[in-house]
Amino acid sequence: SVDCSFSRGVCDWKQDADDDFDWNPADRERGDGYYMAVPAFVGHKKDMGRLKLLLTDLKPKSSYCLIFSYRLAGEKVGKLRVFLANKKTAPVWEENKGKDERWRTGKIEIFQGAETTNSVTFESERGKGKTGEIGVDNVILTSGLCPED
């Protein structure tokens, strides 16, 4: 299992240079480190911010599970999508509203065929809202299939 969280993770995170805004660190409520967030008021409606996790050592023909915490807080805050590098066209995961402001857990299975996935992109799309934020935290990559809830 590889800890890719932002405060102490060992993974390589990059801001996309071709998007509309950056993700920024935000302090956790408990004060132990930070998470990455996009405040609702950044940019214009439909603007995108992408944060890319570079994966270097995934073995071909094996499966992995990417587990992460996320939060969509605020009215019409926008969308959070996750893309895998080898499937650029459609997101493998998408969420567009939070039932409340609580953190939830997302899971994505990454199957390595002959072509290996070399990055995962978290994309935030700005909504109509002016308050709240989209946040991502505690990103962990484990080998094998994702555990059932």
TrEMBL record:
Residues 2-148 form the MAM domain. It comes from the Eukaryota. One of its GO terms (cellular component) is membrane. PROSITE patterns: MAM_2 (PS50060). It holds the Pfam family MAM. InterPro entries: ConA-like_dom_sf, MAM_dom, MAM_domain-containing. This is EGFL6 protein. It comes from Corythaixoides concolor (Grey go-away-bird).
